[in-house]
């Protein structure tokens, strides 16, 4: 499963790579990193079908996480496949209004900082399993 | 006069006629003119007795002269006001009559049958008068009178002298002396009048002087009163000045307190932002520490294995080392934010240091945003930063410029929030606050803080940098933010703070700092 992490904090990369080192080593997850909404869009344009999940911070200089979400939902509307990437929002401000706004704009989840990596890992593994299932199903249906 | 003296007969011709005058002087010095009985006959002379006639006449003359000299002398004394001018002589002078009486009595007692005793008395009186007048010669009427008296005294003295030395010559020039004396008396009279007019003049001048002196005294008295008033006024003014200075000092203290409380108020606004900004590095610290623990566990596990994966071990060790660096880095980051907060609250040292305005702008934009978010959870805004990567460092007082930026950001957020509340269709509006920096071609740095908020109405634009001017509801704004910002940029950094605004579109504040 390819995951794009969008955060203006550079050390997020090191943190994710270590937190998910077993999953990365095991090939279950692959991480890509972008430091701004603009960078994330560029990356998506180049690797459109590969990215399954986007984990994005909301408060970033330049394009905010919510704007990025809007752009993605605009550029990648509903299925047919390839399935649009899921977008999970990450923010230090876990107020109800932001959560509702994010979910209304099409975010699949809304997580608060500081990130609970154990919970996140579970969610991601769950998604990875689903993804595998999808892939399996796709393979099956394709075959 | 028992001795017999022969009579002296003198014959002289008058130069103005053909007459021959024959005089006879007897032993008693009485002069007798011998006149021709008939003008035509020049041989027969009749003895004719003249005016002065011996002893008895002289005594009566002296008495008479004493009598008239007393009021004359007194009159002159009064004329020259001797009591004031010569107080020492005054008393003596007033007793003059004693002298006159004594003279007469002395003459009678000594039986001085001298025919010239009267003339001598006159000379004495004249001498006395002249002496007195000479003593007061500074007084102009006295001087005039002196001038009037001198010829009389001279002729009188001359006559007496001649009489003593050469009586015959005197007799010969008797008439000349008489007319000279007559002239000198006339002279005296004329000069008496002149002296009187001089005295009147002097009197008038004196009165004038007295009036002037009186006026002067009056003016002096008035001046004294005025000076007293001035002194009183000066005292009261000095007191008022002192009071004003005290009030000014109090005001200055109050102003300092206001500035400090404004700082503390902005610090209050910052608290949530600071908490958020500290939260980020702290999260990293805990996360990296946490994950390092995991790495160590894995490393130990790896070491327990019979076949050790040395590459993995070295990777884990590398990660551990890297994590320690990151923990230190984020620890420092949190510490620097706390330090910034302390600097912000402390009174500014005013020390200029090379400052990275990009970092400052970024840092304070976040602080302001998070501060507002903490107060109003529903608030959201898009932050844009367009920071020139090659921005030169600027000599600036970091915390002061930070305060200005914080103020501008806070205002910008307030403006977009206001606009959002006013709009019926809030979703179509994306509140945006942006900050951009660029190096100016002529040196120095420009910072622009832009919002797409309500804009500033024309009426408020004029007063926007004035102290205590605020459009915020009572209790929300001190009205000092922009005025302090203006002072910090213009006075503190020789820069400029200007704005461009359009109602309903937004506002842009432009800071220019010289390089």
* Helical proportion of chain A, percent range: 40-55%
Specify the CATH architecture of chain A. 3-Layer(aba) Sandwich
Largest sheet of chain A: 5 strands, parallel
Beta-strand segment tally of chain A: 5
Largest interface comes to: A-B, 26 and 29 residues
CATH superfamily of the domain at 356-515 in chain B: Histidine kinase-like ATPase, C-terminal domain
The chain-level structural class of chain A is alpha/beta
| Poorly predicted runs of 5 or more residues of chain B | 48-56
The neighbouring-strand order within the major sheet of chain B is 6-8-9-11-10
CATH level 1 name of chain A: Alpha Beta
Calculate Rg of chain A over CA atoms.
15 Å
Strand content of chain B: 5-15%
Gross morphology of chain A is globular
Mean pLDDT over the residues of chain A: 82
How would you sum up the major sheet of chain B? 5 strands, mixed
CATH architecture of the domain at 356-515 in chain B: 2-Layer Sandwich
Continuous helix count of chain A:
6
Could you characterize what this model shows?
- The complex is a heterodimer of chains A (143) and B (515).
- Chain A has 143 residues and is of the alpha/beta class.
- Helices cover 48% and strands 19% of the residues of chain A.
- Chain A has one domain: Response regulator (Rossmann fold, 3-Layer(aba) Sandwich).
- Chain A starts with a strand and ends with a helix.
- With 515 residues, chain B is an alpha+beta fold.
- In chain B, the strands form three sheets. Chain B has a five-stranded mixed β-sheet, with helices on one face. A four-stranded antiparallel β-sheet of chain B has the order 1-2-3-4. Chain B has a two-stranded antiparallel sheet with strand order 5-7.
- In chain B, helix 5 (117-135) runs antiparallel to helix 6 and helix 8 (174-304) runs antiparallel to helix 9.
- The radius of gyration of chain B is 64 Å and the shape is rod-shaped.
- The interface between A and B is medium-sized, with 26 and 29 residues.
């Amino acid at each position: 499963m390819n995951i794009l992490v969008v955060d203006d904090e550079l050390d997020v990369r090191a943190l994710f790579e270590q937190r998910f080192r077993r999953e990365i080593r095991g090939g279950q997850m692959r991480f890509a990193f972008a430091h701004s909404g603009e960078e994330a869009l560029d990356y998506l344009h180049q690797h459109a079908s590969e990215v399954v999940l986007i984990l994005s911070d909301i408060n970033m200089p330049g394009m905010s996480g919510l704007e990025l979400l809007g752009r993605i939902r605009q550029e990648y509307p509903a299925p047919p496949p390839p399935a649009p990437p899921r977008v999970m929002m990450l923010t230090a401000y876990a107020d109800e209004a932001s959560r509702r706004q994010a979910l209304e704009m099409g975010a699949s989840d809304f997580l608060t900082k500081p990130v609970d990596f154990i919970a996140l890992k579970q969610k991601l593994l769950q998604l990875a399993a689903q993804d595998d299932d999808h892939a399996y199903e796709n393979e099956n249906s394709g075959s | 006069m028992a001795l017999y003296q022969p009579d002296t007969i003198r014959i002289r011709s008058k130069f103005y006629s053909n007459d021959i005058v024959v005089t006879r002087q007897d032993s008693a010095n009485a002069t007798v003119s011998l006149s021709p009985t008939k003008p035509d006959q020049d041989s027969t002379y009749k003895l004719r007795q003249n005016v002065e006639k011996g002893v008895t006449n002289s005594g009566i003359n002296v008495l008479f002269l004493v009598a008239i000299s007393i009021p004359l002398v007194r009159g002159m004394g009064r004329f020259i006001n001797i009591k004031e001018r010569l107080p020492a002589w005054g008393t003596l002078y007033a007793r003059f009559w004693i002298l006159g009486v004594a003279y007469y009595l002395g003459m009678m007692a000594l039986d001085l049958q001298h025919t010239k005793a009267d003339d001598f008395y006159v000379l004495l009186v004249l001498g006395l008068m002249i002496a007195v007048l000479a003593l007061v010669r500074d007084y102009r009427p006295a001087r005039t009178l002196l001038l009037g008296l001198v010829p009389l005294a001279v002729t009188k003295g001359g006559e007496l002298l001649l009489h003593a030395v050469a009586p015959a010559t005197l007799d010969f020039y008797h008439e000349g002396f008489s007319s000279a004396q007559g002239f000198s008396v006339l002279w005296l009279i004329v000069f008496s009048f002149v002296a009187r007019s001089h005295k009147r003049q002097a009197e008038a001048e004196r009165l004038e002087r007295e009036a002037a002196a009186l006026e002067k005294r009056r003016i002096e008295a008035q001046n004294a009163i005025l000076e007293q008033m001035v002194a009183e006024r000066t005292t009261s003014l000095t007191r008022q000045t002192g009071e004003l200075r005290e009030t000014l000092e109090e005001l200055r203290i109050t102003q300092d307190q206001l500035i400090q409380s404004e700082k503390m108020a902005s610090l209050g606004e910052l608290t949530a932002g600071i908490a958020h900004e500290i939260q980020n590095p702290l999260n990293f610290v805990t996360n990296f520490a946490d994950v390092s623990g995991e790495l160590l566990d894995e490393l130990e596990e790896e070491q327990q294995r019979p076949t050790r994966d040395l590459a993995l071990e070295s990777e884990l060790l590398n990660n551990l080392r890297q994590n320690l660096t990151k923990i230190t880095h984020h620890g420092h980051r949190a510490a620097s934010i706390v330090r910034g907060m302390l600097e912000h609250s402390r009174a500014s040292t005013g020390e200029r240091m090379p400052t990275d305005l990009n970092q400052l702008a970024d840092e304070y934009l976040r602080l302001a945003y998070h501060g507002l978010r903490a107060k109003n959870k529903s608030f959201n805004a898009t932050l844009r930063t367009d920071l020139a990567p090659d921005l030169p460092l600027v000599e600036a007082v970091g915390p002061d410029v930070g305060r200005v930026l914080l103020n501008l950001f806070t205002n910008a957020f307030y403006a977009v929030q206001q606009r959002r509340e006013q709009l019926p269709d809030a979703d179509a509006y994306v509140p945006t606050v942006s900050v951009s920096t660029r190096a100016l071609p002529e040196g120095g740095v420009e910072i622009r803080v832009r919002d797409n908020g309500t804009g500033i109405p024309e009426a408020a634009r004029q007063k926007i940098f004035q102290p205590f001017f605020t459009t915020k509801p009572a209790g929300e704004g001190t009205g000092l933010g922009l005025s302090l910002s203006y002072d910090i940029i213009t006075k503190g950094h020789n820069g400029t703070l200007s704005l461009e605004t359009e109602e309903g579109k937004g506002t842009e504040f432009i800071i220019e700092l010289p390089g």
